[in-house]
Amino acid sequence: MEVKDLNKSFAFKGRRTQVLSDISLRVEKGEMISLLGPSGCGKSTLLNMIGGFDRPDSGIVRVAGREVLRPERDCQMLFQDYGLLPWRSVAANIELGMLSARLTRRERHERTAHYLDLVGLSEQADWFPHQLSGGMKQRVALARALAVQPALLLMDEPFAALDTFNRYYLQDELLRIQQQERTTVILVTHDIDEAVYLSDVVLIMDARPGTIRRETRLQLMKPRDRGDGDFQHYRKQIMEMFQFTRAMQTEEFSI
After folding, report:
1. What is the distance between the alpha carbons of residues 136 and 119, in angstroms, rounded to a whole number?
2. I need a surface site. Which of 65, 91, 135, 168 has the fewest CB within 10 A?
3. What single DSSP character describes residue 5?
4. What is the spatial distance between Cα 3 and Cα 63, in angstroms, rounded to a whole number?
5. Contact status, residue 182 vs residue 29, Cβ threshold 8 Å
6. Do the Cβ atoms of 187 and 198 come closer than 8 Å?
7. For residues 174 and 166, what is the distance between their CA atoms, to the nearest angstrom?
8. Residues of the chain below pLDDT 70
9. Furthest-apart CA pair in the chain: how many Å?
């Protein structure tokens, strides 16, 4: 996935506000990167343009070598809101994304069964969303996205609404599944620990307008130990950069 010289502005009350300025980044196949920055820096806007849900004023987005002009099956988005249809079972929700694919009914059922097993929900295949916990719903949403077998998975703070236990559990599940499937992932998060735990690369963003201030590549093996000295080193480094970024923005705003 490649983003090159991306710019985006929005009009409000007759004035245009620059939201993103000269964003360029590249993600290799199988990598997981995190976009980390303060509220309002354009992380979700950038994610929406990568997914084809919004268009840039200038610049280009390519996924698997093709320019992104509209949402495609090759790129799937996962939100805090699980987006499950309450009248469909777990299996039927997972199968939903495959209905427009050129698959036979048997192929859809086999793929659904595979991803149910992958996220540990085979025994809940016939349950309905109201019978599931928040963590289980997010696993269904993840299975539905992966069942399409996308080139790129976009995640907009998918674990933010969960309690700590479920968040840590799903972080481990995401790592296991991502490494098994070799899916390329871009994650928006406000959580520095989450970014260091999951990512190969952390991109720290400024706001007003949104730019990429720094790229940090994490030279740590996965799975990672949150108590390890190297983990704490990267956490401290990113925390200091993040605090410096916010201080700079406050100073510029006050001027």
Report:
1. 9
2. 65
3. E
4. 9
5. yes
6. yes
7. 12
8. 243-255
9. 64
Residue 12 is classified by DSSP as E
Indicate if the alpha-carbon torsion angle 71, 73, 76, 79 is positive or negative: positive
* Phi, psi (deg, nearest 5) at residue 96: -55, -45
CA distance 212 to 225: 27
Using N-to-C axis directions, what is the helix angle for 105-118 and 164-181, rounded to 10°? 130
- Cα–Cα dist 45/237, whole Å: 26
Using an 8 Å Cβ cutoff, are 17 and 9 in contact?
Answer: yes
15-26 and 2-12 strand pairing: antiparallel
Report the distance separating Cα 54 and Cα 45, nearest Å.
8
Assigned token pair, 204: 């720290």
| pLDDT score, position 246 | 57
How far is the C-alpha of 183 from the C-alpha of 234, rounded, in Å?
24
pLDDT at 190 (0 to 100): 87
Distances from the Cα of 42 to the Cα of 5, 191, 241, angstroms: 15, 16, 18
Question: Are 155 and 27 a contacting pair, CB within 8 Å?
Answer: no
How far apart CA 147 and CA 244 sit, in angstroms, is 41
DSSP annotation of 215 reads E
pLDDT digits 0-9 by tens, 219-243: 888 888 888 899 999 999 898 887 6
Q: Give me the pLDDT at residue 99, please.
A: 83
Q: Can you give the pLDDT at residue 255?
A: 41
3-class DSSP string for 81-142: CCCCCCCCCHHHHHHHCCCCCCCCHHHHHHHHHHHHHHCCCHHHCCCCHHHCCHHHHHHHHH
